[in-house]
Write a structure and sequence with these properties.
The chain is α/β, with parallel strands linked by helices. The chain folds into 2 domains: 169 residues, 3-Layer(aba) Sandwich (Rossmann fold), CATH 3.40.50; 86 residues, no CATH class. The chain has 7 helices and 7 strands. Helix 1 crosses helix 2 and helix 3 crosses helix 5. The longest helix is centred in the middle third of the chain and has 19 residues. It is globular and about 55 Å long. The two termini are 36 Å apart.
């Protein structure tokens, strides 16, 4: 997705997508794809692009509890493209002080917020607040718009625990366990984590025929009634530290397959 997003999967989208495509090849009865913590759709967009030639997947279901994320993609569903005009300080302040949600506000908020966080900072990011940058983003959106216009692609404002699926590969990128202070999604805590695992357990009822993958920064405590298999591990430099040569702080990125025990 051609907009910055805090804790997005820009550098991991391709390897995760390769794993997803391999799973579809190995499981021809899997018809659909779901992403309940869709964020800025780094993985989902890469999968839609790579699937567009074969048209193997019948339905793409994206959802999030972030109303600003959902407003952006609902705009794409109706064919909207952003106004590329740079924003003034007055407009920035008005957006920050308003509770109104719109696709254009989401565009400005993520494009011009600090470190890909929505509407952060007292001023818009001046590096991005240029006509050239805005027009480039608009052209990138124009190229991917057909992927969202299709009836097979949906985007909804829903909590993960409200969702259910069949014949679906479900990719989850929840707030990272034990580091949820990074999330602005509404207080992810141990109770919500446990509720999430109960939801995953329900998705894995045999007659639902689902596969569940979860991204995280560490191996979770063995969830009750569930088994965790590591499919992918990559050590990466933490954001903000890559310029400090020889002193980079590393973090791990995992992709897990979850099954019932």
């Amino acid at each position: 997705m051609p907009l910055p997003y805090h804790a997005g999967k820009s550098r991991l989208a391709k390897p995760i997508t390769k794993i997803l495509l391999d799973l579809y090849e190995e499981n021809p009865n899997m018809k659909n794809y779901a992403e309940p913590f869709c964020g800025m759709l780094r993985v989902g967009l890469e999968l839609m692009k790579q699937d567009s030639e074969k048209d193997r997947i019948e339905k793409f279901e994206f959802s999030d509890i972030n109303k600003n994320v959902v407003a952006l993609f609902k705009g794409f569903k109706r064919g909207w493209l952003p106004n590329p005009k740079p924003i003034t300080q007055e407009q920035w302040d008005n957006y920050k002080n308003s509770k109104r949600v719109s696709a254009q506000k989401s565009f400005y908020g993520f494009a011009l917020g600090f470190s890909g966080q929505f509407m952060t900072g007292s001023k818009p990011n001046q590096k991005h607040n240029t006509e050239k940058y805005m027009k480039t983003r608009r052209e990138l959106f124009k190229k991917i718009l057909p992927l969202f216009n299709r009836p097979k692609t949906s985007i909804d404002l829903k909590n993960v625990n409200e969702l259910d699926f069949k014949n679906t590969i479900i990719y989850c990128d929840p707030p990272y366990f034990n580091s949820a202070w990074r999330s602005r999604a509404g207080g992810w805590n141990k109770s919500k984590e446990n509720e999430f695992w109960e939801t995953v357990y329900g998705w894995l009822e045999p007659d639902k025929n689902n596969i569940v993958l979860v991204s995280n920064g560490e191996i979770p405590e063995q969830p009750n009634k569930l088994s965790v298999e590591t499919l992918f591990k990559k050590s990466m430099v933490s954001p903000g530290n890559w310029r400090v040569i020889g002193k980079e702080k590393k973090r791990n990125e995992y992709l897990f397959k979850i099954t019932r025990t």
